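Justification of computing resources. Each target in the renewal requires a structure prediction run like the one illustrated here; the chain below, 178 residues long, is used simply to show the kind of job we budget for.
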Amino acid sequence: MVALIRGIERLSQSLGVVGAWVMAPLILSMVYEVLARHLFDAPTFWAYEVGYMLAGTCYLCGMAYCMKERGHIRVDFIYDNIGPKGRAAVDICGFLFLMLPGAIWVTFGLQEYAWEAFESGEVSGESAWNPVIWPFRTVWVVAFAVLCLQAFAELVRSARVLLGLAREEGFEPHGVEL
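Resulting C-alpha coordinates:
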Protein backbone atom coordinates (compact mmCIF):
# COMPACT_ATOMS: atom_id res chain seq x y z
CA MET A 1 0.00 0.00 0.00
CA VAL A 2 2.88 2.35 0.76
CA ALA A 3 4.27 1.82 -2.75
CA LEU A 4 0.88 2.68 -4.26
CA ILE A 5 0.68 5.89 -2.25
CA ARG A 6 4.22 6.85 -3.17
CA GLY A 7 3.38 6.25 -6.85
CA ILE A 8 0.29 8.45 -6.63
CA GLU A 9 2.37 11.15 -4.95
CA ARG A 10 4.95 10.98 -7.74
CA LEU A 11 2.14 11.38 -10.26
CA SER A 12 0.77 14.40 -8.36
CA GLN A 13 4.29 15.84 -8.15
CA SER A 14 4.85 15.33 -11.88
CA LEU A 15 1.56 16.97 -12.80
CA GLY A 16 2.44 19.87 -10.50
CA VAL A 17 5.76 20.27 -12.33
CA VAL A 18 3.89 20.31 -15.66
CA GLY A 19 1.63 23.02 -14.25
CA ALA A 20 4.64 25.04 -13.15
CA TRP A 21 6.36 24.74 -16.52
CA VAL A 22 3.19 25.83 -18.32
CA MET A 23 3.76 29.24 -16.74
CA ALA A 24 6.74 29.85 -19.05
CA PRO A 25 4.79 29.76 -22.35
CA LEU A 26 1.96 31.64 -20.64
CA ILE A 27 4.29 34.46 -19.65
CA LEU A 28 5.99 34.50 -23.07
CA SER A 29 2.68 34.65 -24.93
CA MET A 30 1.37 37.45 -22.72
CA VAL A 31 4.57 39.47 -23.07
CA TYR A 32 4.42 38.99 -26.84
CA GLU A 33 0.78 40.12 -26.88
CA VAL A 34 1.53 43.26 -24.86
CA LEU A 35 4.49 44.16 -27.06
CA ALA A 36 2.59 43.46 -30.27
CA ARG A 37 -0.42 45.47 -29.11
CA HIS A 38 1.35 48.49 -27.64
CA LEU A 39 4.58 48.80 -29.64
CA PHE A 40 3.42 47.65 -33.06
CA ASP A 41 -0.32 48.32 -32.81
CA ALA A 42 -0.86 44.74 -34.02
CA PRO A 43 -2.74 42.74 -31.39
CA THR A 44 -2.86 38.99 -31.80
CA PHE A 45 -6.06 37.06 -32.39
CA TRP A 46 -4.91 34.09 -30.32
CA ALA A 47 -3.46 35.51 -27.08
CA TYR A 48 -6.70 35.59 -25.08
CA GLU A 49 -7.40 31.91 -25.72
CA VAL A 50 -3.83 30.82 -25.14
CA GLY A 51 -3.87 32.82 -21.92
CA TYR A 52 -6.95 31.29 -20.36
CA MET A 53 -6.09 27.78 -21.53
CA LEU A 54 -2.52 27.89 -20.20
CA ALA A 55 -3.53 29.60 -16.93
CA GLY A 56 -6.29 27.04 -16.45
CA THR A 57 -3.86 24.23 -17.17
CA CYS A 58 -1.44 25.63 -14.62
CA TYR A 59 -4.05 25.85 -11.88
CA LEU A 60 -5.68 22.52 -12.65
CA CYS A 61 -2.36 20.67 -12.75
CA GLY A 62 -1.47 22.15 -9.37
CA MET A 63 -4.56 20.87 -7.51
CA ALA A 64 -3.30 17.40 -6.62
CA TYR A 65 0.20 18.70 -5.90
CA CYS A 66 -1.27 21.28 -3.53
CA MET A 67 -3.18 18.53 -1.73
CA LYS A 68 -0.06 16.41 -1.49
CA GLU A 69 1.81 19.32 0.07
CA ARG A 70 -1.09 20.14 2.43
CA GLY A 71 -1.51 23.55 0.81
CA HIS A 72 -5.30 23.63 0.68
CA ILE A 73 -7.16 25.80 3.17
CA ARG A 74 -8.25 24.24 6.44
CA VAL A 75 -9.28 25.46 9.89
CA ASP A 76 -5.81 25.15 11.40
CA PHE A 77 -6.56 26.57 14.84
CA ILE A 78 -8.72 23.49 15.53
CA TYR A 79 -6.78 20.97 13.45
CA ASP A 80 -3.41 21.85 14.98
CA ASN A 81 -4.70 21.47 18.53
CA ILE A 82 -5.73 17.83 18.27
CA GLY A 83 -3.41 14.85 18.25
CA PRO A 84 -2.20 12.91 15.21
CA LYS A 85 -5.03 10.37 15.43
CA GLY A 86 -7.58 13.17 15.77
CA ARG A 87 -6.15 14.88 12.69
CA ALA A 88 -6.23 11.58 10.85
CA ALA A 89 -9.91 11.10 11.80
CA VAL A 90 -10.77 14.62 10.59
CA ASP A 91 -8.92 13.97 7.33
CA ILE A 92 -10.70 10.65 6.82
CA CYS A 93 -14.10 12.29 7.26
CA GLY A 94 -13.19 15.13 4.92
CA PHE A 95 -11.78 12.95 2.18
CA LEU A 96 -14.34 10.17 2.44
CA PHE A 97 -17.50 12.22 2.73
CA LEU A 98 -16.66 15.50 1.01
CA MET A 99 -13.61 15.46 -1.23
CA LEU A 100 -13.71 12.08 -2.95
CA PRO A 101 -17.43 11.91 -3.82
CA GLY A 102 -17.41 15.42 -5.24
CA ALA A 103 -14.16 15.02 -7.14
CA ILE A 104 -15.21 11.66 -8.61
CA TRP A 105 -18.56 13.11 -9.71
CA VAL A 106 -16.85 16.11 -11.33
CA THR A 107 -14.27 13.87 -13.05
CA PHE A 108 -16.92 11.71 -14.71
CA GLY A 109 -18.94 14.76 -15.72
CA LEU A 110 -15.88 16.41 -17.23
CA GLN A 111 -14.98 13.21 -19.06
CA GLU A 112 -18.33 13.28 -20.84
CA TYR A 113 -17.92 17.00 -21.53
CA ALA A 114 -14.47 16.46 -23.08
CA TRP A 115 -15.60 13.46 -25.12
CA GLU A 116 -18.58 15.36 -26.55
CA ALA A 117 -16.25 18.20 -27.55
CA PHE A 118 -13.92 15.71 -29.25
CA GLU A 119 -16.70 13.92 -31.13
CA SER A 120 -18.34 17.11 -32.34
CA GLY A 121 -15.14 19.00 -33.11
CA GLU A 122 -16.40 21.80 -30.87
CA VAL A 123 -14.44 25.03 -31.06
CA SER A 124 -14.06 27.62 -28.36
CA GLY A 125 -16.08 30.41 -29.94
CA GLU A 126 -14.13 32.97 -27.90
CA SER A 127 -11.98 34.61 -30.59
CA ALA A 128 -11.14 34.72 -34.27
CA TRP A 129 -8.64 31.90 -33.73
CA ASN A 130 -11.42 29.55 -32.52
CA PRO A 131 -9.35 26.43 -31.67
CA VAL A 132 -10.85 23.03 -30.89
CA ILE A 133 -11.58 22.85 -27.19
CA TRP A 134 -11.26 19.13 -26.42
CA PRO A 135 -7.53 19.22 -25.54
CA PHE A 136 -8.17 21.79 -22.81
CA ARG A 137 -11.15 19.85 -21.53
CA THR A 138 -9.02 16.71 -21.48
CA VAL A 139 -6.61 18.54 -19.18
CA TRP A 140 -9.57 19.11 -16.84
CA VAL A 141 -10.33 15.38 -16.77
CA VAL A 142 -6.72 14.35 -16.16
CA ALA A 143 -6.25 16.95 -13.44
CA PHE A 144 -9.41 15.95 -11.57
CA ALA A 145 -8.60 12.24 -11.96
CA VAL A 146 -5.18 12.81 -10.39
CA LEU A 147 -6.84 14.88 -7.66
CA CYS A 148 -9.10 11.89 -6.94
CA LEU A 149 -6.07 9.60 -6.75
CA GLN A 150 -4.26 11.99 -4.41
CA ALA A 151 -7.36 12.25 -2.20
CA PHE A 152 -7.44 8.44 -2.06
CA ALA A 153 -3.75 8.38 -1.11
CA GLU A 154 -4.39 10.91 1.66
CA LEU A 155 -7.35 8.86 2.87
CA VAL A 156 -5.24 5.72 3.07
CA ARG A 157 -2.38 7.62 4.69
CA SER A 158 -4.74 8.96 7.37
CA ALA A 159 -6.29 5.52 7.93
CA ARG A 160 -2.82 4.08 8.49
CA VAL A 161 -2.13 6.73 11.13
CA LEU A 162 -5.50 6.12 12.79
CA LEU A 163 -4.83 2.37 12.89
CA GLY A 164 -1.33 2.87 14.25
CA LEU A 165 0.40 1.43 11.18
CA ALA A 166 2.21 4.56 10.07
CA ARG A 167 4.84 4.65 12.77
CA GLU A 168 6.10 1.18 11.89
CA GLU A 169 7.08 2.21 8.38
CA GLY A 170 7.86 5.87 8.99
CA PHE A 171 4.80 6.80 7.00
CA GLU A 172 2.66 9.57 8.48
CA PRO A 173 0.59 12.45 7.15
CA HIS A 174 2.44 15.63 6.26
CA GLY A 175 2.93 17.81 9.27
CA VAL A 176 2.11 15.11 11.79
CA GLU A 177 4.91 14.30 14.18
CA LEU A 178 4.52 10.95 15.88
